[in-house]
Amino acid sequence: MTTGRTAGQGPLAGVRVVELAGIGPGPFAGMLLADLGADVVRVDRPGGSSLAVDPSCDVTNRNKRSVIVDLKAPDGPARVLDLASRADVLIEGNRPGVAERLGVGPADCHARNPRLVYGRMTGWGQQGPLAHRAGHDVAYIALTGALGMIGAPDRPPPAPANLLGDYAGGSLYLVVGVLAALHHARESGVGQVVDAAIVDGVAHLSAMIHGMLAAGGWQDRRGANLLDGGCPYYGTYETADGGHMAVGALEPQFYDEFVDLLGLGDFRDARRDWARWGELREAVAARFKARTRTEWTAVFDGSDACVAPVLSLSEAPHHPHLAARGTFTDHGGITQPAPAPRFSATPTAVRTGPALPGAHRREVARDWDIPELATDPEQPSPNTSSRGA
Known about the structure:
Layout lengths: L15 E5 L4 H11 L3 E6 L19 E5 L7 H10 L3 E4 L5 H5 L3 H7 L4 E6 L14 H8 L18 H26 L3 E6 H8 L1 H8 L19 E5 L5 E5 L3 H11 L14 H13 L3 H8 L6 E3 L10 H6 L2 E4 L2 E4 L23 H7 L22
Parallel strand pairs: 1-2, 1-4, 2-3, 4-5, 5-6
Antiparallel strand pairs: 7-8, 8-9, 10-11
């Protein structure tokens, strides 16, 4: 492991990570580790990924370096094991058993590097009846009960992009697990396997809701609870111009300010009166419909009513608060989220743009002392391995 630090590299400077190329939560986890300063080398497959994104725009590969290794070639597994022997962490997102069949599973890697943290990112996990089944975010969150909590009660649950499953329940749990195992490896000298399953992570995210359910404070149906749109002062409303405002006026003082600014002071006592919630919802909806999103944003500006405009992806970077904090950044002509969280002593930065497949084989060969990586990769062979998450 290298130990040098450069300004802007972050608290994980000196940590070496091998990322076996995949799509979805694995690359995002690799990006997070790279944003935090780790030297992440992505091992790309000949022919690239099946994700239909221009590699030069795939910001989940920023701050990384890339080499191409054909794991179906005779010397392919040896090159990955060379990397693993010099790494602190390896992450992969294949279906259970695929890495083992390719010769780069945990046993193969630990034989070369007993301290290695081997992170496995899948949807269903390494064991269980569905472990070898294909899947995607929406199916994983469906089985955990999370998807069933989302949306209006009289319509099918909407697919909430892939933020909840792939990234919140998947990538973030993989990174937490990897960092915990890395701490253990440094203390004990012993590496281990981290089994990060999206179904486990999403289920874990619902811990508070399960507690409320057990206590009788949550109904097991959509649109009937405080935080799922069932409450008229926690949800979204349409404005006159087709925009939307988000309302989260839960506490009494915030609620009072909310109804006062709406001009609905007569509803101050309706906060805890469930019998009046239907009437309150209709009144709030009618008021929001009377003005545009911009007008309502001005009304609530500077207040503690907990109301905000619902912005699009292209609008968000220009919001004054996010612009002042630098929540988004521009790098290489791409507007993208800046690294998070922030550190006082070891600040992070977007240091490089997306790593193009194979662009760094010579410098990685030099820096990691693996001369064989510097040779031109062999011609691509058909890639038939299956993805797990």
